[in-house]
Amino acid sequence: MFLDFFLLLRNDGFPVTLKEYLTFLEALDCDVIRYETTEFYYLARCVMVKDERHLDKFDRLFAAYFHGAQLVDTEQVISIPLEWLRKNFESALSEEDRKYICSIGGLEELMERLREIFEKQKKRHQGGNRLIGTGGISPYGAYGYNPAGVRIGQDGGRQRRAVKVWDRREFRDLDDSVELNVRNMKMALRKLRVLTREGVGEELDLEETIDTTSRNAGLLSLEFVPSRKNNIKVLMFFDVGGSMEEHVELCSRLFSAARHEFKHLEFYYFHNCIYEAVWKDNKRRFSERIPTFSLLNKYNGDYRCIIVGDASMSPWELVYPNGSVEHNNDEPGLVWLDRIKTKYPFTVWLNPVPREEWKWTESIGMLNDFYEGSMFPLTLSGIKDAIGVLKRRPTGHVASGLRV
Which residues does 336 contact at the CB level (< 8 Å), separation at least 6? Predict the structure, then answer.
């Protein structure tokens, strides 16, 4: 039983042994849990995951194998949660319906109407085109369709058209242990080097040894110098969650390569655009946020800044206050990006979206123009081009002013 799941874990490189699999089966045979999906998941995770670094991979493989499965006792009454029924509802709209929805209006009008509906609506609403509900064409709710709406209480995005998201979404940290296919990334990042000699002499200086020995009339005198080390300082920002979920593996490879290549590496997470705060741990992104101004004061302008993200968002996030999809920001995203670009003249943006698709997303075009040719695709050639820009820019470069 569950042998295929065990083989799936092993074939994907997950560190699980036959002993742990047998322990898992023994626990099931001893009825240490109830026949319920959540308890089954936690039992499997408790037995098979030995290091927290592997939690994300286990979750992805578990979800892929047991997708839609529910363990039940055949003698008990099967109760289907309401959430399952909501997710099964999909709307079928004509082209005329879609054009009508697009004419609803801008961000301020959308939020004002939402406040009015909150005051009036007193009960649950399914379908429809006006109230807060599920499965309809209203601008407010979940599991429906509207190209300019506010998503409320939906488990993950589907069409990625929401203007705002009112939900406590959980993002995951990047896994710096990923080694598969990162060698070429390491070689590309290695070109970003500032080699200096610091510390205790541990490397033989052959020329100085010969010179000193000659001056000592042939008496050998070994001369040592500190090893040459790459002391480049790198500040990285990673976009996580939302549309970046499909690029997690690629970004993890980049993160792993950067951790191995740069001794002085600082990294932070953001969602869609950098605003007044970022975070170090996605599990604590609501409780342990770090003010962006603190970073600007902490790290000097010698740092090379690399921003990694798909730049795919509503243009409102870049040019309007309160345009953020998740919170009410006092200043537009471009204001904060301009502060970062001004403080760190060595700045590039790496985009996992293929370059040929950039023209279809307005926000990508806006940021590409804003960074004046310093946005590159997250490919080997793109990384090499970005490293070239980071190396050749003069230290005295001052970023251009904000253009909103």
Answer: 273, 274, 275, 276, 292
